[in-house]
Amino acid sequence: MSQVTTDKSLHVGFKRSNYRLDFNAPSYKTWGGCPATIVPHKNKHVWGAVWEIDKASLPDLDRQEGVHEGIYFPIQVNVTSPHGEVLECVSYQLVNTPPFLDEGESLPVHRRPSQIYLQVGALHFICTC
Hints:
The protein is mostly beta strands. Helix content is 10%, strand content 43%. It has a three-stranded mixed β-sheet with strand order 1-2-5, with no helix packed on it. It has a two-stranded antiparallel sheet with strand order 3-4.
């Protein structure tokens, strides 16, 4: 599978409010573990990086993220920089949304991130230009 590449800039430290990072679904060969997703969760937030890509690359990114296979679907999100700048971006959410966890409940073993994800270590938002 080819990956979308960009010579555009990467910005780190962006926050998406009222969402949490989670993992779900069966293990995928690509990651060797559960894929990541963001899910709505009041008073929580996730931090991530923003990649700027050409709008024409979005269909390729959809294919890379498995939209055509029913793994993810794209969502529009607003993310905020540490300086208060708000950007409208695209993120990808798993079709198979993980069940809600009670406060203080740990991720079950079958929903923990793969070693590959931990090495990559960042949630990404996409901003088109």
